[in-house]
Amino acid sequence: MYETVTQNNNINTINLNLQYKNINQLKEYNDMNTEWQKLYDLAMAVINPHEISKQMYVGSVAAAVLTKRGNIYTGICIDMSSSLGMCAERNAMSTMLANGENEVEKVVAVYKDGTVMAPCGACREFMMQLGENARNIEIMLNNDGKSMSLSELMPEYPY
Q: What local confidence, expressed as pLDDT, does residue 6 receive?
């Protein structure tokens, strides 16, 4: 179970109690390097799938974004019946932008069962428009720790 506890001075502390469904998932997790593990853990920590209303369901996907300054921002998906929702990656990057940053180093998105997911086309486009260096953003693609640069995921993008 993952749980977020708010401490004094508005500092959030995330308590992680990692649970694995089977030994293969644990092995895959250990194949990731430490930085990716931290991002994965922080994304998993904010997953909290629940219904807001009959038209809105949130939290089944979460993302963690590492910036060039070394800060990490998380976000959850917002699914709406009207299709006006927001992916977890763009949610995390919106928080990053609200905090005055715009240079991303790494991105990971995870589904509620712990499966790492590649970003959708809208999220890829959003990232590409963050600036000249956006093509170098590293994105985790699966639980084996495989990653690619954004430019490798979008080889035909007109830089």
A: 40
Neighbours of 75 (CB within 10 A): 24
Which residue, chain included where needed, has tokens 């179970």?
1
Query: What CATH number corresponds to the domain at position 28?
Result: 3.40.140.10
Given a contact cutoff of 8 angstroms between Cβ atoms, the answer to whether 93 and 65 are in contact is yes
Counted domains in the chain:
1
- Asked if residue 35 belongs to a domain, the reply is yes
Unique residue bearing structure tokens 């644990």: 26
Q: Which residue has the tokens 């998906």?
A: 77
pTM of the model: 0.80
Q: State the DSSP string of 51-102.
A: EEETTEEEEEEEEEEEETTS-EEEEEEEEETTS--B-HHHHHHHHHHHTT--
Structural domain includes residue 28 = yes
